[in-house]
Amino acid sequence: MKRLTRGVSGVLPALGGCCLVAALCAGCGRPTFVIEPYLQNPSQTEITILWATSTLSQCTLRFGLGSQLDQQPAKVACRQIPTSQPTLVDYLYEARLTGLRPGTHYSYRVAAPGASAGGSFRTSPDKPEPFTFVVYGDSRTGVEVHTRLGLAIGAANPAFILHSGDLTGNGDYRQYPREFFGPLHGVLNNVPIWTVFGNHEGHGPAYKRLFDHPGGEPWYSFDYGNLHVAALDYGAGPTNRPRMLDWLDKDLAASKAEWKVVCYHVPSYDSSRRHSAWGREDVLPILRRNKVDLVVSGDSHGYQRFRPMFIPGQNDDHPITHMVAAGGGAGLHPVLSSPFTAAAEKKHHFVLMTVDGGTLTGRAIGVDGEELDRFTIAKTAGRFSAEYLATAFDERTFDRVRGSAAASLDAIYLPKLPEPGVPMRFSFPVTAGAEPLTLKLFPNADSIYAIEPLTVRCNANQTVQATVTLTANGPVKVGGNRALSPGISYECHYESGKEKGVINSGPFRVGPPPTSRPADDD
Question: Which residue of 119, 194, 311, 328 could cross-link 190, Cys pair, CB 3.0 to 4.6 Å?
Fold first, then answer.
């Protein structure tokens, strides 16, 4: 056998039919677990266990029924992990356990010279039964908050975790041990995790290595009991997107599960400041005709749940509930209510989902343990109740009024940086859509600013100039994306006909408005 060095890549051979990665060079020293064992890709008869060490090491994995450790996998694969610092090399080990019993508890332990770690898991059941799973996302660099949420998630003992993307700050491998696996210490060794690709995963080499989901693509699906989950890649380009959509249509059509959930990072509907609309033209028609029940997304930091949505003639009898679960630790965005919003909270959180036959119950739990929202979706023989259907709305109206108000308030530009104590008078345009629009603007700012409330009225398809006088009663500066710092924005109460709602403006910025919307990377 060839001698293996720190330059090794690819898959290491298993030795003697056991799980020894026996290529330890004498000078490598004792290994450390950079990432302790974590669980992926559970099914009724299989599961994947992965871990990472700082040196190429002789590792032994044992597992068995209950608390026994009397079995070993056929092999363990080992690969280098991509990193932005090529002189620092870690090694990722992966073992696929097969031939397991459905709905059965197992224990396992990974041992290496000088280190040992393990946990337990339960395989997916072979028939429907009540179970709970967790949804959350956008944990990123919020390690302290993420750690607190991780403790609560572990205490809930879910069947699995579904993460809606943006696991770390920029997707470099070196961030994963501290920002993602560290806060979930003691959780991921016992609870399998499924993830979707977010914009902060970068171009994804580390993510794709650490989270190797079924099928070898960044989109995939899985079943648990009477639930079917399809996960999508919001960043699929012009070549891959048609392939992904074709796969999605076939995957959902083939599923006979009682509940269908689809997860992707950037929301199709968003009443926060991003105003996201991903997938409305090509993804949502597939979800409507395949009777998807719930869409889960991230990216817009906070919690949002919308009333069920439908398009007449397409899914009148099977509207879709959209939920944004993006409070895993990243800085929060303004939370906006609208006539379409069932619940919205500017708080860090996770969502505990319980499936019990024809009932799906969700509880959004804040970082301090408080319940932010509770909802139930129930079916009888596959049909929603009349009460649930009565809360649904035509999603084509979602941005009819709110969209024009939000566009006018996306960002408000000051001609220059205010001088402390000197009133600055400036104007910004407000444009109405096809109906008259009234905006009542209230300052949502730090106490350093003096600014009066403002009412703006526009006739249909009219643009008016809203004039503001602002005084900074202290030093200010220009921050990222030219935003005024300390920050300031407007809380906007809008009204058009019978439609009313509340949104927030974007941040006040300094300088001339750009020809396109400034990047928003937070």
Answer: 119
Here the tokens at position 392 are 């649904």
* Residues ≥6 apart with Cβ < 8 Å to 254: none
Instruction: List phi, psi (to 5°) of 366.
Output: -75, 170
Residue 326 has which token pair?
Answer: 């993006």
What pLDDT is stored for residue 238 in this prediction?
Answer: 93
- 507 contacts 411 by C-beta, under 8 angstroms: yes
For strands 393-394 and 309-310, give the pairing.
parallel
DSSP of 417-429: PPPTT--EEEEEE
Helix, strand, coil % over all residues of the chain, rounded to 5? 15, 35, 50
H/E run at residue 468: strand 463-472
**Closest-CA residue to 49 (of 24, 19, 28, 70):** 19
Q: How many CB atoms lie within 10 A of CB 453?
A: 10
Cα–Cα distance, 265 to 382 (Å, whole number) = 28
Query: CA 151 from chain center: how many Å?
Result: 18
* Residues in CB range of 23: below 8 A, 6 or more apart: 1, 3, 4, 8, 12, 56, 58
Residues 6 or more apart whose CB falls under 8 angstroms from that of 30 comprise 55, 113, 114, 115
State which amino acid sits at residue 42: P
Considering only CA atoms, which of 287, 182, 183, 310 is closest in space to residue 230? 287
Residue with tokens 């060839």: 2
Three-state secondary-structure class, residue 441: strand
Please report which helix (H) or strand (E) contains residue 95, including its range: strand 91-97
Helices (H) and strands (E) counted in the chain, each on its own, are 6, 34
CB 131, CB 347: distance < 8 Å: no
Residue reference for tokens 């809360």: 391
**For each successive 10 residues of the chain (522 residues), what is the average pLDDT?**
31 33 37 90 97 90 95 92 80 96 98 90 96 97 97 97 96 94 97 96 87 91 97 94 98 98 96 84 98 97 96 96 97 79 95 97 97 96 92 87 74 92 93 86 85 91 92 92 89 78 82 66 56
Burial of 124 (0-12, 13-18, 19+ CB in 10 A): buried
Give the count of beta carbons closer than 10 Å to the beta carbon of residue 74: 13
pTM of the model: 0.82
- Bond preceding residue 86 cis, omega within 30 of 0: no
pLDDT of amino acid 152: 98
Q: Are 234 and 271 a contacting pair, CB within 8 Å?
A: no
